[in-house]
Design a protein that fits this description.
Elements (H helix, E strand, L loop, with lengths): L12 H14 L3 E6 L3 H13 L7 E5 L9 E5 L6 H18 L3 H10 L6 H6 L1
Parallel strand pairs: 1-2, 1-3
Helix pairs in contact: 2-3
Length: 127
């Protein structure tokens, strides 16, 4: 069974493969995910870490243009933000946060955070 919704037509082979790779990599070592600095790219990468059940201490997100892994970190290229399944995953993450927090304000704040040009923005949103 896929880590995504098993009945979902929004799944892509690439996204499922990324989840499986992150699951394998993040258990014994640290992983840096280089992601597109768009809302879909960052929130999709956050969803990827959630689906893989990766230890948050073993994963960090960076902008594609600032990807410089530390010693012992493995690099994983984040999901393509234009992929329909990544967009659906980002929506799922935002909807889940809204339900957990109880307000749509969280989505507005994440959208504003993702608009930042700060090089650390992906990791800030991830945390």
């Amino acid at each position: 069974m896929s880590p995504l919704n098993s009945g979902s037509s929004d799944q892509s082979v690439e996204l499922v493969s990324l989840v499986q790779r992150l699951t394998r990599l993040s258990k014994p070592q640290k992983v840096v995910i280089s992601c597109n600095p768009s809302l879909e790219g960052v929130v999709g990468a956050v969803g990827l870490t959630y689906l893989s059940h990766a230890n948050p201490a073993h994963v960090r997100l960076v902008r594609e243009s600032f990807c410089q892994p530390s010693l012992g970190e493995h690099v994983l290229c984040g999901p393509d933000p234009s992929d329909d399944s990544v967009v659906a995953l980002a929506k799922r993450v935002l909807t889940g946060l809204e339900k957990k927090v109880g307000t749509r304000e969280i989505t507005r704040r994440i959208v504003l955070a993702c608009a930042s040009d700060a090089h650390a923005m992906p990791e800030i949103v991830h945390r």
